[in-house]
Write a structure and sequence with these properties.
single chain, mainly alpha, 11 helices, globular, disordered N terminus
């Protein structure tokens, strides 16, 4: 399924204001859920997967009302339940009223990621689907994923798509970087400047993500 994310928050849960003052209750709730997820026993094969902590962070963030991902994180209900059963058995996610819409480039973004996967973990396939889904959000990519910070997203990229991560030599904002890679593949060139350093919008692509 092709999705566009529209963050919808439970009115009973305070909304996180990214770039402003973050609601401490949200932070505490996400931290508690993250600790609960990581304390859940899993078989060694899954417990040792470096993506486990990143998956836990996204699930905790979503359950706390942050990010734009649907309940199944973009994996589809079947794959999402399989992921929970393998990595976080006995954990029951709280449903939220997400309203995804379609974006035409979802499959292209997914393919871009899969074509550059590390080939170390099966979970890379899930991470590609999740990132492609979150690219439809309106915030920075790490925020749309429901992660704690940009460092977690950078870790995710280096773990799962190291060739792409190495290509981001200027530390461009990850969503802009992925779309630039996608557009370049398709022969679409939307930047009028001859180089990033000479572009008047440099800060929009390379400025802080917070």
């Amino acid at each position: 399924m092709v999705l566009r994310c529209n963050p919808v928050h439970d009115p009973g849960i305070p909304v996180v204001q990214h770039g402003g003052q973050v609601d401490q209750q949200h932070d505490r709730r996400a931290a508690m859920l993250l600790a609960e997820l990581l304390a859940t026993p899993a078989a060694a094969h899954y417990a040792d997967d470096p993506n486990r902590s990143l998956l836990a962070s996204m699930i905790a963030g979503h359950s706390a009302g942050t990010g734009c991902l649907p309940l199944h994180l973009g994996l589809g209900d079947g794959n999402y339940q399989d992921m929970l059963a393998d990595y976080f058995p006995f954990f029951e996610a709280a449903a939220q009223n997400d309203q995804p819409e379609a974006i035409p480039e979802w499959e292209d973004l997914q393919k871009l990621l899969l074509d550059h996967r590390a080939g170390e973990q099966d979970s890379e396939l899930w991470i590609a689907d999740i990132i492609a889904t979150a690219c439809a959000g309106r915030d920075h990519l790490w925020q749309d994923l429901g992660l704690l910070n940009r460092d977690e997203l950078s870790q995710m990229m280096w773990l799962n798509f190291p060739e792409l991560a190495r290509s981001n030599v200027g530390d461009m904002k990850w969503k802009k970087f992925l779309y630039r890679q996608f557009c370049s593949r398709e022969g679409i060139y939307v930047c009028p400047a001859p180089s990033c350093g000479e572009c008047k919008d440099y800060a929009k692509c390379f400025g802080p993500e917070n």
